[in-house]
Every structure is written in C-alpha cells, then in structure tokens.
Recover the amino acids of this structure.
C-alpha cells in the first residue's frame, strides 16, 4: 500500500538510472536515509530539475515504493551557493555528506540529531566560505573535525582521545605521542600499550590528540591539519570498513598523508601518524 511522505531532507548523492530520470539519496530528520526517484528531472522543463543538487536542503513530498520512493513535489530551502564557491569548504561538506550516507540507516525514526548535525555543519561551512580568505582553510577543517566526531558519537563510534580506553584514566599529555587502537576504539596509556600486545595500532601525536579531543576549542590555524586529517581518515576507514571517496579530494587540497603513503596499516602496528 502506497503512502505519501512529507519531509525536509538534504540531498547526499545521485545517479542516472534512465534517459530522463535520476535516483537520489536524501537524509531526513524523520526517516533517516531516503532513496527516491526523480522521474523526468533531466528534462529541460521538468518541475524537479533542481531537486538533485548535492548538499541542498529541500521540502519533499514523496510517494512510497518498494525499493525507491517517487518524488512528487519539492521546494528548495537552501542551496548553499556560497559554500560551492570555496573548494576547501565544499570538500569538507562533501565528506560530511558521504559520512552521513555511510553511517545512516533507512526508516530511522531517531535520525533527527544526525540530520541537525549535518544541517548545522553545512550552514557553518557556508559562513566559513564567505569569511576571510587567510583563515578559511583552518576554520573549514575545524568545522569538519567537530562535525565528523559528532556524527561518530551519534552513531556510537566516538573514539576515546583524552583518556586511556583500557584503564579509563585521563592522559597526562607528557608523552610526545600515544598509541591508538582502532579495535578498542581509543588511545592507550604507555603502560596499557605495553600490556596490550594484540591487534593493530597507530601512534598519534599528542598535539593531534589534544586538538581532536576538544575540537571546538582548538586553534585550527595552528593545528597540523595533515596529521589531524590523516588520523580521521585512518579511523573512519577502519570503522566503515572501506575508505570514503570524498577524502581523496580533500587530501589533495591539504596534502594530508594517507595510510598508504605514510605506511600506516589497519592490520599491524605502525608509527605512521606519529
């Protein structure tokens, strides 16, 4: 039995599936991930021609379907034109959209916190894009770091970055780096690192851990973005079990190291992110 869904949603991605139509993936506060067909939208005079703009927020009216819903009507809420004018802000927004897509589930009635986190990040990145050019990169990476860690927390995957995941004791920040275990989901104190010999781990600099453990207070104009982004990529790749494609473009803008280029491994100890 078909029904009608009315919701606000953010477009995460899309692809052509016929000569005139596209399949679109949205994220909504009431239902989480929504897969829908925009039939005829590729026509020049289609009333749906703007519905598939990636990252845009729309009000949607959809008819439910077995595998794909059908978009009946849409109204644009925010297209983020200024966000699209800055490559760094756009790369950060695209990474957040892909992360939400990979973490999100369909028919999720508890999706509103994740939706609002992504929505808020897009508005913040648009504000960064129209700010002072000399501070844009640092501010965009700061928004990205806060938002990625928030999305991970909402999904139950927040890494422990300022205390030992084994003992629960706060780190004393006296070492130049600490071992991080993706299997355990957090940092190991030097004593715990000596005792816990199994699994993979990577060394992460103290400066990186301190910035990521409190990203809202970090000075992202001074933080080494290459190390911070390298660690986030490492952890997200482990948690999601495959790399995020949007990271490739972002890393090309920042020259941040990738696990492959630095020797980091998801299956064996490595000091690559030291």
């Amino acid at each position: 039995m078909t029904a009608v869904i009315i919701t606000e949603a953010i477009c995460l991605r899309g692809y052509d599936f016929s000569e005139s139509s596209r399949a679109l993936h949205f994220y909504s506060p009431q239902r989480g991930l929504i897969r829908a067909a925009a039939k005829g939208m590729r026509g020049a005079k289609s009333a749906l021609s703007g519905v598939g703009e990636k990252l845009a927020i729309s009000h949607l009216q959809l008819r439910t379907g077995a595998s794909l819903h059908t978009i009946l009507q849409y109204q644009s809420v925010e297209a983020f034109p200024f966000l699209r004018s800055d490559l760094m802000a756009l790369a950060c927004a695209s990474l957040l959209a892909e992360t939400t897509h990979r973490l999100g589930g369909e028919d999720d009635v508890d999706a509103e916190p994740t939706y609002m986190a992504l929505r808020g990040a897009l508005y913040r990145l648009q504000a960064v894009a129209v700010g002072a050019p000399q501070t844009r990169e640092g501010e965009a990476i700061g928004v990205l770091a806060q938002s990625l860690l928030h999305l991970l927390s909402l999904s139950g995957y927040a890494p422990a970055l300022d205390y030992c995941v084994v003992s629960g004791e706060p780190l004393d920040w006296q070492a130049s780096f600490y071992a991080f275990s993706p299997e355990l989901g957090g940092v190991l104190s030097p004593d715990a690192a000596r005792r816990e010999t199994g699994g993979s781990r990577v060394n992460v600099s103290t400066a990186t851990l301190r910035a990521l453990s409190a990203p809202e207070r970090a000075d992202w104009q001074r933080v080494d973005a290459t190390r911070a982004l390298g660690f986030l990529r490492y952890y997200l790749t482990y948690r999601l079990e495959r790399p995020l494609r949007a990271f490739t473009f972002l890393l090309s803008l920042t020259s941040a190291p990738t696990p492959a280029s630095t020797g980091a491994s998801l299956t064996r100890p490595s000091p690559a992110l030291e």
The longest strand covers residues 4-16. Confidence is low (pLDDT under 50) at residues 256-274. The helical segments are 87-103, 112-129, 136-154, 190-195, 206-213, 225-240, 246-254, 259-262.
